[in-house]
Write a structure and sequence with these properties.
This is 33 kDa chaperonin. Keywords: Chaperone, Cytoplasm, Disulfide bond, Redox-active center, Zinc. It contains 10 helices and 13 strands. Strands 7-6-3-4-5-11 form a 6-stranded mixed β-sheet. The chain has a 5-stranded antiparallel β-sheet with strand order 8-9-2-1-10, sandwiched between helices.
């Protein structure tokens, strides 16, 4: 079984589509970026799984971002999944909790799902209150309310693996409520051990062997952060020369640390001087 794979499948008898996801190295890469306590790791892994599964259901060429902001112990969680199979994410917290219930983790919170195009400035965002005892319930409620598309999610994560399955009733199909209810009940019999240790073929056969399952080729998922020095320099230019020089005077340098991947970018007085150096008349060089 490939360690970091997304696989699409169809339950043709029930007119239901699905996605199966298993992440190992990608999840481990994300965990090395920050020292997350156990209660943060669990929901961060579930959110990572959910974002990849959701992105796979939408035809787009850019990125899907899942973001939760609240006033609980975890006050920010962000996961970004791209159409190219890359992911990155982070969580911020300010106090500990022993609970794993969503209201106890995030308090009063909102969840935003944002779609951004890769080649244009087009952006679509849906913002709803965070409701339910689990992230699966919150996202299922989102699809029922915002998309009117029956959807089921089974998410899990531990220190080694993040994994999940998504089921979605096909729109404009003659699927019956009985079919949807049956496959939903079958999904509820899945265990964390099966999802962790079995290949997609084995999981789907165990759950849906009477539903005429069609499994498609897998897609590799990997951790990747798009930060780079050019983007950092562009951000500093947007602050303006006066602000940049104030920071230099106070700290002797400007240091930017990417919260997604922990990469550090340092600029000294010479670098800042070059950033704001006026272009010479007749010069074709951009600074």
């Amino acid at each position: 079984m490939s360690a970091d794979t997304l696989k699409r499948f169809m339950l043709e008898n029930a007119h239901v589509r699905g996605e199966w996801l298993h992440l190992n190295h990608t999840w481990q890469d994300m965990l090395t970026r920050a020292d997350y306590p156990p209660f943060v790791r669990k929901v961060l892994g579930e959110a990572l799984t959910a974002a990849v599964l959701l992105a796979a259901t939408i035809k787009h060429d850019g990125a899907l971002t899942l973001q939760i902001r609240g006033d609980g112990p975890i006050h920010l969680l962000v996961i970004q999944a791209t159409a190219q199979g890359t992911v990155r994410g982070l969580a911020q917290w300010n106090r500990e909790t022993d609970s794993t219930a969503l209201p106890d983790l995030f308090g009063e919170a909102n969840m935003a799902i944002t779609l951004e195009s890769r080649h244009s400035n087009e952006r679509y965002q849906s913002l709803i209150p965070l409701e339910g005892e689990s992230l699966s319930q919150a996202l299922e409620s989102y699809f029922a309310r915002s998309e009117q598309l029956p959807t089921r999610l089974w998410l899990m994560s531990d220190d080694a693996i993040a994994a999940g399955i998504l089921l979605q009733r096909l729109p404009q199909e003659q699927a019956s409520d009985e079919d949807w209810g049956r496959v939903s009940m079958l999904l509820d019999t899945l265990t964390s051990a099966e999802l962790t240790h079995l290949a997609a073929e084995d999981v789907l056969f165990r759950l849906f062997h009477e539903e005429n399952v069609r499994l498609f080729d897998g897609k590799e998922i990997r951790f990747h952060c798009g930060c780079n020095r050019d983007k950092v320099e562009s951000m500093i230019r947007s602050l303006g020369q006066a602000e940049a020089e104030n920071v230099l005077e106070e700290q002797g340098k400007i240091e930017i640390i990417c919260e997604f991947c922990n990469a550090s970018y340092t600029l000294d007085a010479v670098d800042i001087g070059q950033l704001f150096k006026p272009s010479m008349p007749g010069s074709d060089t951009l600074h």
